[in-house]
Amino acid sequence: MKTIKIGGVNVPIMGMGTWYLGEGNAAQSEQEAAALKYGLNHGLTVIDTAEMYGNGAAESLIGSFLGDYDRANIYLISKFYPSHADKRQMLTALKNSLKRLQTDYLDLYLLHWRGSTPLAETLEGLQDLQKEGLIKQYGVSNFDVDDMDQLTLEPGGDQIAANEVLYNLQSRSIEYDLLPQQKQANITTIGYSPFGSGSGKSIKLPPELRTLAKEKNISTHQLMLAWVLRHGDVLTIPRSGEASHMAENIAAADVTFSPDELALFDQAFPAPRHHIPLEMI
């Protein structure tokens, strides 16, 4: 599988999202844990979560098996609420996340979306956490071009490692300006919801793309995931609660497209030709 760098650290181009995981009954949680462990056992070393996901349920699910693995081989990301973006509450939020995850540090800690706390204060808090060894790197999520411009001008803003944003066939706005800007600044773009919201069926593929999936003997979800990975510029984090689906996600990383095939995607879902405000789900 291709790799991508986050702040100089090489990780696989595909990780594992955990939104909505850990919120069901014991049997469902066991199945979801098995899916995540399948991913870890097959090279997906990045796990993305947040204190928001099930009010900590996703973090607790991860913590239930994290100790079975060599922590040094896992790249663990979590996110904190904007309401916890001041220095004091950020430290409390992080300690609570670490307790649920049953680990003593995060590889990457992200502000989930921009709130009312001054960016300078949030950055100062993140740098303090980094100095204490509680996080290795820090970044943001759901920040648009103007937000990133302001962020990088603040003290510590030049050390932002990543920005996690919505990116899929139907939501391509980052291609026009945000993605090129972040590549130039060596800020990793993490793309969430590669299949769209909910079950993934919200993205309706036209007949020509469904035919392309059949010709390649892959599912439509694999087709959409492979498209997100096509250029190697975005770390995608599909969520899966079943090991069989996790295996399909992994296989999608090997799918390639010819220029003519990529043109089919562009015809159905045109690339942006001007700035479009960043979407968020």
From TrEMBL:
- Report the GO molecular function annotations: oxidoreductase activity
User: Where does the secretion signal sit in this chain?
Assistant: none
- Domain NADP-dependent oxidoreductase, by residue range, is 14-267
Could you name the domain of life of the organism this protein comes from?
Bacteria
Q: Which Pfam families match?
A: Aldo_ket_red
Which PANTHER family does this one have?
ALDEHYDE REDUCTASE, OXIDOREDUCTASE, ALDO/KETO REDUCTASE FAMILY PROTEIN
Name used for this protein in its record:
Aldo/keto reductase family enzyme
